[in-house]
Fold each of these.
Amino acid sequence: TQLLEQSPQFLSIQEGENLTVYCNSSSVFSSLQWYRQEPGEGPVLLVTVVTGGEVKKLKRLTFQFGDARKDSSLHITAAQPGDTGLYLCAGHMDSNYQLIWGAGTKLIIKP
Amino acid sequence: KAGVTQTPRYLIKTRGQQVTLSCSPISGHRSVSWYQQTPGQGLQFLFEYFSETQRNKGNFPGRFSGRQFSNSRSEMNVSTLELGDSALYLCASSLAAGKGWGEQYFGPGTRLTVT
């Protein structure tokens, strides 16, 4: 059982559309990170959120940490082909030393 | 600042052989973590080293081992390779010094194929 569930698992949309991907859990996380991974490369950190309700923006990407710190979302506005990749969320719990990873959302933006 | 480097980038081995992968972290980072990534299982945590000590370990058999040197460089070894060990092996370094919740900076990975 995944502690962090990401949805959808796969998403293919046209350039210019908006989209939201989710990272959900029944557990509380002290912090949550989002990464993007392109084929043949390692994941690259996009953002870290640590406060419940926190919203962070990175150009066309908006990240939100849930008020209860059990979930997070990534919203992309006017998606571009360069946004294509595997989006991974990862979180830390105070009770668990390890970084817990979601299975990822594979995103394809078609020109 | 140079990023995380991993060598080799690609490797082909046969069943029963052993393999050693190398990782050089970002300068100043003392934590190195190793992950196995496959299409079916996603990103699976292998182990983490900090200051030459294994600080945490995932659920992998004893065939998977690692070590860290005084300069923070790390190696992982897989003995008696099996077909199922074919994967992308990722190394990540972090500044984490306390509870280990630092942000991970990944290398490009080593693509291991076992035939």
Amino acid sequence: NAGVTQTPKFQVLKTGQSMTLQCAQDMNHNSMYWYRQDPGMGLRLIYYSASEGTTDKGEVPNGYNVSRLNKREFSLRLESAAPSQTSVYFCASTGRGATDTQYFGPGTRLTVL
Amino acid sequence: GEDVEQSLFLSVREGDSSVINCTYTDSSSTYLYWYKQEPGAGLQLLTYIFSNMDMKQDQRLTVLLNKKDKHLSLRIADTQTGDSAIYFCAETPSGGYQKVTFGTGTKLQVIP
């Protein structure tokens, strides 16, 4: 099992450019999440998908869109990147059990100039 | 909304014990977690505790929960240089398949 994979690992964009961050999991998990991590602010939830076909806003959804393409894949799109979106982005997934925890991908380090 | 707070930095000498503290505000928190993040990597679950427990021990790790004060701590015995990382406290009222609120993270530096 690869667990949770993310691509790309690093990306530099210019202000106004668009891009899609890809995430896939092979653990047959129902729920998937996108977080951003900024120094001194911990992890903040951008969007999550409780199950295939559903998505919901998290704490900081502005400037982002998501697609739950199928059970395995959950992508995050920046339509018009801004310097404030410079961050490290983590995808996570979890199963349905009460004791199930979140499994994290390795992260995508994004810089917007 | 829910809030989880941690101090940002802790420095200890190799071989000493480390204690990382966390406070949370959600009185309905049922599951509380500790995650470890090594440089350049994602978060990995270290341990978790249910709200009906006061203490959980797992090898060098001891988790203490004070529900009255909404205080959670992680003690690492015999701290090693490989324990240097950022440690995140997290909580959820309903289990890991629901939204989880993370703390800001505590960076642990182990001095040889």
